């Protein structure tokens, strides 16, 4: 670099006071490149900031200068571009005396040389300036400007001597340097333009006979040097690129015909193929440049030099990636050039050169790349790959490949090649250099193997690093072959499998099969029979391969099939293209079959093998889907939803429905189809249509992504059932098979895998698309009871129907069904002569699936519950015991609600001492199912009459003669008897009576007896009450608002003076009566049979008013101790007086329901009477 | 001298490959497959630069001593690769672009056929004839 730059630096001459300049020279030379200067360039090129340095030479005029002037600028390096004149002059007098004249001489001299840029520097001494206080009228500088400056007075500069080291002087020195830079730049630019002109002229003459590329190359290279000196490396590179292109063009043209003479020199046989030398410390190969100057270079030398220069410039601009990238095209175009130029080379020289170049570039670039990251990795990878390939080529030539024999020819080749590679004598290079490596690799087969594997590893690793997996895998292919040659086939397996995976993932069939063929070879060598079979199967099934290869591997396959067990994914060998399952269309559910039926599937298998395959069994495995219930629920929900949709569209009525798509290609998913009825305004049908709401999606164009997942190996999945057929011969082409399966469990199943077993091989393929599902439907047998439209009634025979459905299972034999009824219910089969009973057996004949039989059944429920008021029905149960239903609980309870036809109530009525028994029968059935009653009777049990007190009891029938009564909901019936002969006394025993009547449902023939037991109590009247309301004396009428007397008279009917105290209560309706004073009172009947009480009451309104009611109760005073009980709980009750009500028949109220007539109050004293009443 | 023309699908599976010399078909398959690496790289680079109007022509993908491969990628990620003989210097960038344009048009017409499922290997005879013609004319 240093050598070169001093040569290319522009030269500034100096004249005048040389002694003065020598003191300033070093400062000037150092100061010049310290700052950049803007370079304004011609031809519209953008201005650049550059650093300029220059060397100084004393000015001398020689005669050569005149010659150069005439020929134009021949040489750029070392050209004198600027002339300076240095002078130190204190005053004008001295200047006028001698300085002016010497400047004048110099000035005329420089006008004669070609480059006539000049600069006059006046060095001033600051001290001298200071001493003179008065500014002179004209300074020396002004004078110089005046004399020489002409229009360019800026060429005359004054500078304060910087040696004095003052602030002012340094400032002036910087200004001077700036001016000098400007001037130098301008001068250099001018020179450069001139030189460029020369270069251009030379180029234009390239077709002349005596033109030589080498000369031109050297000329233009000077431009490059100049740019490099200026730090414009890209511009320098452009020069080399132009030269490169020019040369390439010459070579290309030479192929067409006219090759210039100078090109013949390039066709010399190269004797050195050491590759490009990229020594960063010596970027300038003088040896090669010398060869160019001497015109004694081969094309290899020239290219090496050119590429080295280009690389050096790129490396300086820190673009190592670009070097690597260019290297590739360089190597390739170079090989092409050699071909075009017909350069005869030693066999193997070019690969050697390429190999070394690649390695050299790689080692240089990688040392430069450092932190710049992996952007250049792509080129590196390609270079490694190329180096690897070339090494392999060399290895082949030199017999170094594994298994190759080394003969004399190969040895000669090694010797020749080694002679042509040298290390350029660069001692500082990192050892081992590429040359060392190559020499070692060529030395022995082992060393070659080591180096080849190393290069492959590097190439592969770099490819992987920059994400070029496919390229990396392709290297694996080379490696696998190499390992195969090495006799280590097991090492090549992983590479090939990796390749295969890649090709399978991206579906490159041809490459896949090619890899399979290689794998088959490898597996055969390893002895991996199992995987050999798989590879063979794949090869044999590939249709694009030639028949011989396929048959060869097919026979391998069949042979191996006898003794190796293997599952092979057969999607490319035996392709299952179609499955059709015969579904039971009679069933409601789509795609379903009945339980226990045989499912048949027709499948179409395409055999891609070149020969027939005998299969012991071909199956399609079937897996149960667990969430069968959920799915059916969902589908039901969906159905409901679509029904709801109906309301939205008033014009169209839709019925949801599904059509199973049974087309062979489309999936078995259901296409939702709706029925649409279009109605006219008046409601009549206009049109009917089938509509598919998701037509848009279904008819959308499918885009095949082309990638079906194809696994290398498959695993036979677990399965529950299989469709299968035994012993079939699958011939090449389309095979139609019918597979069968017994559907023995209900549920939903999906087809899982297709398995063809041939000897010990299993060809397996997943049935993924289309997803076919089978629903096996099982309908349970059922037993139900069907009643008629009306409710079941108790007390009369009712007919029901027992319905038995077989479901999906048929009964082969006779079965017995046992029926049990709950308590109070009797059953009877009318067909048999059996009686009503609670248990009976029913014998069922053999029945087919989905058959229904029904048996009439008679039931009879007890009427016992009719007396209670609440219960109008009883829930009876009919239990069905069917032990032969294995899947259902053997006991089945069928509920039967039986309703009461009527209710019966008993009531005791009193008329003074007479007692009447009333039986009220209320019908509950509608009049259409009315009941008839006759022969009512009331009986007391005989035991009653044994009691002497009751012996005279007798019934007096007050009912009509034997009239038949019809009762229903709307028509109740009442029966009445008088109970005569009851003794008048206290504490009569309870009478247990029984009412019986004959009844029948209207329309039936036989009468049934209904009896009803009831108890009669208090059938003796003890007291009577009579109440009377009378106006007060003086009034004739009762008037509203006026007081009147109410007299209560209580009589003891039995007249057996009881000591009991009685209490009366007047319960008046407060809206009608106001009771004045106490409304209740206690009295004793002791001693008299009658007791009267008079109260003051006042009617509040006029009209017929019911008398205030009177209640009579037995009064038990507080002092009286409770009988026989000392319990604490009763003590509290005993201390208080107590009322004991009488039974209903014990007190007779004469005045019950009596009314009195009350007149309206006199109008004049109405208000006063109101006052009284309220007070 | 175009020696091979190939179409590679969206998911990198081969759609179509036609070459002049049938015996080299396997080799070209390998080259095509490797070219996917370069195509992907170029697509990533052009995505990084973030220009809206994407240049479909990818330029030189791969070159070796024998062949050079040029790439083109449609907006639907269909890759078209032309492999030319390395020694051919007559076929310039512009000519290659022109071939790509024709191939792209041919492919567009093919996809317009409703019976062709995009992504399936191309078996159309007229398409094949067109590619053959291009191969013959450029050689």
TrEMBL record, chain A:
Keywords: Golgi apparatus, Transport. Residues 987-1159 form the TRAPPC10/Trs130 C-terminal domain. The keyword Transport applies. Residues 783-888 form the TRAPPC10 Ig-like domain. One of its GO terms (biological process) is early endosome to Golgi transport. InterPro entries: Ig_TRAPPC10, TRAPPC10/Trs130, TRAPPC10/Trs130_C, TRAPPC10/Trs130_N. Residues 7-324 form the TRAPPC10/Trs130 N-terminal domain. GO terms for cellular component: cytosol; TRAPPII protein complex. It is found in: Golgi apparatus. PANTHER family: EPILEPSY HOLOPROSENCEPHALY CANDIDATE 1/TMEM1 (PTHR13251), TRAFFICKING PROTEIN PARTICLE COMPLEX SUBUNIT 10 (PTHR13251:SF3). This is Trafficking protein particle complex subunit 10. It comes from Daphnia sinensis.
TrEMBL record, chain B:
It holds the Pfam family Sedlin_N. InterPro entries: Longin-like_dom_sf, Sedlin, TRAPPC2L. GO terms for biological process: endoplasmic reticulum to Golgi vesicle-mediated transport. This is Trafficking protein particle complex subunit 2-like protein. Its main location: cytoplasm. CDD domains: TRAPPC2L (cd14854). One of its GO terms (cellular component) is perinuclear region of cytoplasm. The lineage of its organism: Eukaryota, Metazoa, Ecdysozoa, Arthropoda, Crustacea. SUPFAM superfamilies: SNARE-like. The keyword Calcium does not apply. Gene3D superfamilies: 3.30.450.70. Keywords: ER-Golgi transport, Transport.
